[in-house]
Each structure stands twice: as C-alpha cells, then as structure tokens.
Write a structure and sequence with these properties.
This protein is mainly β. It contains 3 helices and 33 strands. It starts with a helix and ends with a strand.
Length: 430
Amino acid sequence: MFQLLLLSLPREIIDILMLKFVIDKMNKYLIIFAVLLSAMICSCKQENSQWRGEARDGVYHETGLLKSWPEGGPALLWSFEGLGEGFTSPAIANKRLYITGLQGNELVLYVFDLNGQLLTKKEVGTEEDENYPGPRSTVVVNDGKLYIYNSFGRLLCLDAQSLNQVWAREIMTDYGGRNIDWNFTESPLIVGDKIFITPGGERHNIVALNKNTGEHIWSSPGMGKVSAYCSPQFIDGYSIPILVTSTAEFIVGVNADTGELLWSHPQTHEYEIHPNTPLYYNGMVLSTSGYGVGTTMLRLKDGGKAIDLVWHNEDLDNQMGGAIRIENHIYSGGHFKRGWACIDWNTGETKYMETNVIGGCNVISADGMLYAYSNRGNVYLVKPNPNEAEIVSSFPITLGTAQHWAHLVIHNGVLYVRHGDALMAYNIKN
C-alpha cells in the first residue's frame, strides 16, 4: 500500500523523500562513527606521571583504601630485587611502571607491567657509583615521552613505547651548571610545552627547554646560587605563571613564561641542602628544610610578583621527605628533633612535636590518611589529627638495601615502596 502511494506522487516529491532518507541514514552512521572515534581518542589518551603526585604536593587522589592494616602490614602483591642501588620512586602511567637503578656505573631504566613482570630494561647513560651510589631523579612521564635526569646533569628524553632517544642535553656544559656535594637530585617539572631544570649556574641558574625538542626557551640568573637538590613547583591562577624552587641560600620565584626573577627569600644553613618541593595553597607558599632551618610560610601578593613573610617555625625541619597539608594543618617528620609534627598552616603554631615518634621520613597522603616511610625502614599509616600523633598501623620493610630514602607512591590501590635494590607493591585497597 505504501509503495503504491509512493509511486503515485510526483517525481520531485519522491526525489526529496529519498534524499531525506539517505541523509537520515548518513547522519545515523556519522553519529556512530563519531562515538567510535571519540572512544578511540579516549582510549589513546596518554596518562602522565611526575614527582610526588599530580600537583607535586604528595597527595594521591585515591579512594576506597584501607583505614588500618593487618598485623605485619598489607598484603605483598609482588616484589622485584635486582634494580641496583638508587633512590628514585616509580613513575606509573599507561599501565607501565618506570624506575631507574644502578648497574656498575650505568644508569638503567626498568619497565614493568602492573603485575610486576619486567618487560624490558635499557642502559641510558652513566650514574653516580661512589657518593651514595644510584640515581636520584624520578622519571617524568609526559605525553608519551620519558624524561630522565642523571646525577651529572644529563637530561634525556625517550619515546615511552620504543625507548628510542628523542633528544638529550648536557645541562652542566650547555648552561655553565655547577654540580653539588651529593650531585643533582632534581626531578624536572613539565608544564605545557616547557620542561624546567636548575643547572645552578651564575648566569643560567634556572632554565626552560622545549619538552619536545630540548631547544632553549629561556634562562634566568635567579639569585646565582647553586642548586639545592630541590624539585620545583608551579603556581597558576595569578597575573603571571610562577615557578618556585629552592637554591642554596634562597627560596625563589620566577615568571614561568619568561624566567624573570620575581622575588626571593633567604633560607640558609651550612650544608646548602633544601630538597623539599614547596607547597602552595590559598595564596601561600610553604618551604620546609632540615638541619634546624625549619619551615617558612610566604604569602604571594601583587599578582604573584612579590611576597610577605607570614611565619617561620623551627620545630618542623623535614630533611628531604616533604610535608603534607590536610585542611589547615601540616604534617611531617622532623630531622634534628626526630619526631612527628603538626603545624597550623595559617599561623605556624606548633600543635605538637612528639619526639621518638616516626622521626625522619618521607610522607604522602591518600583517601584522608597519611603514609610515612621512616629512615629506619618502617612504613606507618597515620590518621591526621591536630591534637596528637595517631599511628594506626605500621610494618617493617625487610627487602632491599642501603638507605630508606625513596618516596612512597600510590597508584590504583597499590602502595609502592622502593628500598635500594628492591621494589615492593602492597595491596592497600579496601
């Protein structure tokens, strides 16, 4: 009946109806194609990984984690012994784990799947083999590339899939850099197309390179002081983007677009060691340092182009393990006082410093809890409490070698602990 009706219509009407039918079909297929293309793009989207989490603040955005551990600690999922000495943390992205170690005097990159299976390894240059042997700088994963910085100032970019070299720069040679007592330790920072590094030269103190080519973008004289083992922080949301780091005698802020020195604040002790990445929150920048230096809070003003000193506290002097801000309090372990401290973020008031509790450590957080890895080889689960040190669970690290200095990492409900030659993965998912 429908066909007879259709045939009785004028030819022009039939053509219009057929054209509409074809267009409707094409639209349907275009929609399907667009959905499939979108799914393919999403599936190919690269994950990135950098030092101390997404914002370099030690906070890992995980949920559903255990609020206490069984006696003896969480279940060990897998371990690997044979990395060689080193202090780098794992970098995890795109279902791959990247970490470096020392074999002889060679810097070796190891690539694992997330089940702990070693997929490949590659020698990527030389590394410090005498003075606290092993690599210091954690691999940065960014847009399908790996960035590796060795103790002697060689910055290397590799393709993450093939591990072929994309580019390399000799930072000391190219920028008049000056190495330091325990060698370069900085984990480079990438923002947009720039990668930032601190040669510590008198003229070229802090530099920005193109992350894709290694080409020079800018250099800043800073305050002309050598590097202080610090991995920089990036601050956005002001009239200019700000790069903050610590060099031997100063906390410095520079314009991340141009390298112009914006401000500086003195921070000194005889060893010139200030490794902790500054923290930023709500207009204020916190820097903590060991050897009795303590913790300094600065407030940004004039659109980030200047600072005021808000407070200074000598109770909390973390040597190289960072600090965590939860709400309006800072938690970390001390160096000289060797205790566990809580400081008020806004006022600098010491809420408590409990000596002989945890002590020197590196600290991160996830799902409302604190994770501290002490220099003595114990891992602690701590509930944030501004009134007292509330340790919930702990367990000892029994594998590995040398110092317990590598920072903890959490990824997809797994706690990763590197102790020298060994890497361990613990299930902390509830």
